[in-house]
Amino acid sequence: MKSSHKILVVEDQTIIALDIKYILESEGYEVDTDYQSVDHVLDKIENDPPDLVLIDINLGEKRSGIDIGNHLLKKDNLPFIYITSNSDKITLEKVKSTRPYGFIVKPYKKEDLISTVYLVMNNFQYRKVDLLRNSETDKRDVPIQLKQTLDYIDQHVTQKIDVAQLAGLTRWDSAHYSRVFKQYIGLTPYQYILKKKIEASIAVIETTNEQLQYIADDFGFSSYSNFCNAFKKITNSSPEHYRFEKQSIKNRDQK
Amino acid sequence: MIGGSVLLVILIAVLVWAYQFRKRGNFIFGLSRIQLQNAIQEKEVLVKEIHHRVKNNFQLISSMMNIQAMDKSIDVEEFVKRTTSRIVSLSSIHEKLYLKDNLYQLDANEYVKEMASYVKSSFMDLPTVIDYQFSDDVVILDLETIMPLGLIINELLTNSYKYAFKGRAKGLIEISIKQVASGKYKLTYADNGVGINEGASFSKSIGMNLVDALSKQLGAQSKMSFDNGAHFEIVFKKND
Q1: Is the pTM of this model over 0.80?
Q2: How far apart are CA B144 and CA B148, in angstroms?
Q3: Probe site for chain A from B46, B47, B52 (most A CB atoms < 10 A)
Q4: Per-domain residue ranges of chain A
């Protein structure tokens, strides 16, 4: 993981930019407040992309921060947060269409700035996990009791989960629970839990350099070879090979 | 019979006339309603703009206080004094603007005079007698330009009053804003104080950080030197 995240601050009022810089630097971020024009910002995003962009909306020129937000929406590779004193309906309507990751109203509180930046960075990093989480099981037609246990699995994916525990959340006994589960989800509870664990571990394997043995441990596998077997069943690849491939793709993209 | 027809014709004529009159009346009334609506809409946009500016100014003040709070060497009284001085340099712009017909522009040198006299009054206990020399040029600048300019001058003035004239009976501060080319202006600030020795602390201070940041906002590089007193210069463009 990178030791310091770089934040680009798009703010034409230099005193406010300086304040934001000092606040975020004290949290360990690297902060760039050099604002010249919208074009200059788009250039920077293209050639030296930061990890997060903080955008003021009214920039004293024809184009506004919303134009930058639109650009980022289309590129879809960087999280961004608006920080603005415009919070009227018309502005909000425009803001909404660019799907920002956060919105901070001026005058801001230091704590709000810090926590919003922290949360957005974190959510963005783990958005792959969320995508996997929501990808395959359509939960709309699933009985509410079963749904609750699915949510429980999602929330406790790093812990050891057994069927008796899940059945305990419903009115059913373990055998009936397993039958209902298979009927609606297409997998046994055990298979489903394993699948969820592997999917979540994939995101960690991709986004961090954490040792694979530790990752296995973090997701509640009793041994590394258990983890490898489960991983292979679902991805047709070993964890080592998977990480190696992902990283060589990443390196190729960066070239 | 004839009388009846005449009466009928007159009646119809009156009705037609009344109808047309009503129509015309509506027409006139309708136009003025559109005009009224436009005027109201314009006002609404303006009021929104004002709210936005007010919020932005609060943010600016809050940011300046946050930045000043990083300097742990000054006490509460000094903190309040510096903050107040910055607020006054912002508020006197609005004071001047709303007393004028032109709500967006004002004469920079006139504003400087007023601000300088405020700073003077806030350093009443200083033993030094300080005189000012201003420019009488009329230099009309807009709000967006004059705000950073005013804050820069406020920092320079505070620095002069605090450090430049220690142990002196008299001092002189010169401030002028002049047009140097079409759309190009120059602020010159100078005091005849002690210069480099004591002034050097300024280069590391919060005040100087603010001056740097504000100069950048004016899109200009500033020059500062401390030989034979402090000397500051910045050339900037009019906001377009």
Answers
A1: no
A2: 7
A3: B52
A4: 6-125, 129-254
